[in-house]
Hints:
By secondary structure, the chain is α+β, with helices and mostly antiparallel strands. The protein contains 5 helices and 7 strands; from the N terminus they run βαααβββαβαββ. The chain has a single domain, classed as Gcn5-related N-acetyltransferase (GNAT) (Aminopeptidase, 3-Layer(aba) Sandwich). Helix 1 (13-27) crosses helix 3 (42-54). The longest helix is centred in the first third of the chain and has 15 residues, at 13-27.
Amino acid sequence: MSRAIRTATEADAPAIARLHLSSYRAAYRGLLPDGFLAAYDPAEREHRWRERLRDPSRTTFVTTPAMVAFAETGPSHDVPHTGELLALHVAESHWRQGIGGALHAHALNALSGLGYESAVLWVLDGNRRACAFYEAAGWAFTGETRRRTVRGTAVDELRYRRELRPRRSLRV
Length: 172
């Protein structure tokens, strides 16, 4: 089945929340405690997605006709003049089918179109599948790490960076 990518709307919040929870649990199984992953509240996740979709500094892209993946972009809050890939999640049943790569390319093109010349992202330390995906797509580990506390659990993350291809203007 052919997939298209579109910008999400607030009406997509319930579907994004469900996909986010299922893909998060699949991707981080064995990397984060089972209780931590199971404790996510679907209603709270939907509320947070409604808020994120209302934030004009962020853009979320989803696959259609079936929502099996989403990506979220916005400005980096700690690296000036840099975009950030805030999230990229694909349903486990659709891993390694090219959907993540297409959505990734779409998200980077959107950041480039906003004038960003580079982008950053954070990856959970130990998430080898994600690191391999991003490295194959031209991202490089910067050597920077951070530790955050998420719902009482310490989470270590690695920062990646890549240059974006500037959009070429059409000459008339």
